[in-house]
Amino acid sequence: AELRKASKRLTCHKRYKIQKKIREHHRKVRKEAKKRGRKKPKKDPGVPSAAPFKEELLREAEQRKQRLEELKQKQKLNRQKEHEKKRKLEAKKNAAKIKEKAEGKESSSKSKAKTNKLLDKNSKKSFCRELKKVIEASDVVLEVLDARDPMGCRCPQLEQAVTCSGGDKKLLLVLNKIDLVPKENLEKWLNYLKKEFPTVAFKSATLMKDRTMVTKRRARVDLSRTTECFGSKCLLKLLQEHGKTQNKAIQVGVVGFPNVGKSSIINSLKGVRACNVGLARGVTKSMQIVHIDKQTKMLDSPSIIADPSNSALALALRSIIGTEESGSADVLEGVDAILNHCSKQQVIMHYSIPDFRNTEEFLTLLGQKRGMLKKGGVPDIESVAKLLLCDWTGAKISYHSQPPGSQRLPPYLTEDKIAEIQECFNLKNLEEENNTTVQALKYPSPASSIAFQSAGMANGTIEENKVIEEASEWENMETSKEEEEEEEDFTESDDEDNVEEEEKDVREVTRKAKLGKQQTSPTNPEKQIAESEHSNSVSFSLDKTADEDDAYDFNTDYV
Q1: In whole angstroms, how large is the CA radius of gyration of the chain?
Q2: Are residues 327 and 408 in the same domain?
Q3: Signal peptide location in the record (predicted)?
Q4: Contact, 485 vs 85, CB < 8 A?
Q5: 369 and 344 Cβ atoms separated by less than 8 Å
Q6: Could you give phi then psi for residue 450, rounded to 5 degrees?
Q7: Which pTM does this prediction carry?
Q8: CA pair distance 251, 142, nearest whole angstrom
Q9: Angle formed by the axes of helices 183-193 and 427-440, to 10°?
Q10: Domain final residue pick, 433, 465, 497
């Protein structure tokens, strides 16, 4: 026989007893409240009908309440996001701990070896090793220069290593990003550089299709700039002719400082996105071979490492370490160096900002204009500085530098060596092709392009043993995403203070509008100053300060 559940019914005696106890408790509570004396909440009388500007005051109070609600909603969402991230982090940590325990000591040693390999791949020594490989394996070395600052992109150590290698290695200069400088300036640079090395004018294709990837939703593209490639036929023809004279398939190494467009040139010659490209510095970490045709192989290389002995300007524009890893002091120093080497008036016109006294003020104005603000409406100077460095090394800003007045050959170059290099290439055809490339493109006007003062050749480190390794910077490169999640501090206390201050302001507006209830003290200026300072500190109370609220005294009769 199955057991039945016990009934929940009570006897009448027990039920009546419970009801009696409840009645007694309520009576006792009422008695205590009567003794204590209950204070009714004072009803807000609102703005009197006789008060002038009543509608404006009510509207203002309503707007403030609305903003308060929006801020509370934002805080709620932020808290939810924070809890979500914390939960995910905890789950990851727990999973990692469980894995480590399960796999034991062997797995931990393997993981350590793996991380060491990753760090080694990102190290400066590894970059030098790969660059050396490319130079040794190449028959022709293309040194890629940014047309906006060609002299600043030249590395004397690299040029010396190629020209003094003793073999049949030839060095070609490729002047990339020619669409970002005025036409007259480009022609001057081509005339200057061709006296030392054969120089090719080039403009990389900006939109390349990747055959290996599924087509995704395309990002917003600046259609004002041409996306097709210029100068690729000229460069290919030059390399193929050199290959025929050598009677063998040639390997062409592409070298240069970060963000000059090495991988983009290979992609343009291939016609497909064969190499990874990006705004971040140091995207290419190892040698990559790309077959252009049967006779030509292109070797993509990591960037040349800028020597720490270089000027602040050279380190800001040519340093291999990305802006995410560099410290705020270095970034600000770099921006300061850039601004000091530019025409201030042109910078003001380009960014559409008022006149500034120093770098910090410039970044503050730019941050306010672009809406890059921290909590409390304070401009995020560090982020603005990093963005500015990315703009100046990327293909966003048009600026130009003038070639030196007199031609001085570097110590590693002699007239015999120049003649020897130039013999291998058909310079007449090269000049004709360069002229057609120059005529085909659209250029910015000299007025819209910022005049820039170059710091001269940038020293680079090619020898592996000369590299001073900074481990911490490279450890950050791989683990930056995880660290960002772990290190994000959500300081909500500031927001909560802002909410309290906003609530005070709302109460203040309604209180000041009352007639005859509370009198304002016009003879106490210190309090008014304190109030105005307090309201100014609140980022979102942009409508009116406390002084403006006190502009009308309701206790005075205005005739």
Answers
A1: 35
A2: no
A3: none
A4: yes
A5: no
A6: -75, 130
A7: 0.60
A8: 11
A9: 170
A10: 465
Tokens of 286: 């190892």
Tens-place pLDDT, residues 34-57: 888 767 777 877 888 888 888 888
> What is the count of structural domains for the chain?
2
Residue 180 is classified by DSSP as G
Per-residue pLDDT of 190-235, as tens digits, reads: 999 888 888 999 888 775 544 444 344 444 444 344 567 888 888 8
Rounded to an integer, what distance in angstroms lies between the CA atom of residue 181 and that of residue 201? Answer: 12
User: What residue spans of 37-146 are helical by DSSP H?
Assistant: 54-122, 124-137
Q: Determine the Cα–Cα distance for residues 67 and 99; give it in Å rounded to an integer.
A: 48
pLDDT at 489: 44
State whether 239 and 301 are in the same domain: yes
Torsion 400-406-412-418 (CA) sign:
positive
Residue 520 belongs to what H/E stretch? none
> Which residue is it, tokens 């760090």?
119
Both structure tokens of 280: 């971040």
- Quote the tokens at residue 419: 């003649």
pLDDT band for 480, please (50, 70, 90 cuts): very low
Contact call for residues 341 and 312 (beta carbons, < 8 A): no
**Of 228, 230, 206, which Cα lies nearest the Cα of 218?**
206
Tokens of 439: 């005529």
H or E segment and range at residue 305: strand 305-306
How far CA 465 is from CA of 248, 285, 320, 321, in Å, comes to 34, 18, 18, 19
Structure tokens at 377: 């409406």
pLDDT digits (tens, 9 = 90+) for 327-369: 567 788 888 888 888 888 888 988 888 988 888 999 999 999 8
Q: Are residues 176 and 194 in the same domain?
A: yes
What values do phi and psi take at 553, rounded to 5?
-100, 115
The boundaries of the domain holding residue 409 are 124-208+225-308+403-445+454-465
**What whole-number distance in Å separates Cα of residue 241 and Cα of residue 427?**
12
CB atoms near residue 121 (< 10 Å): 15
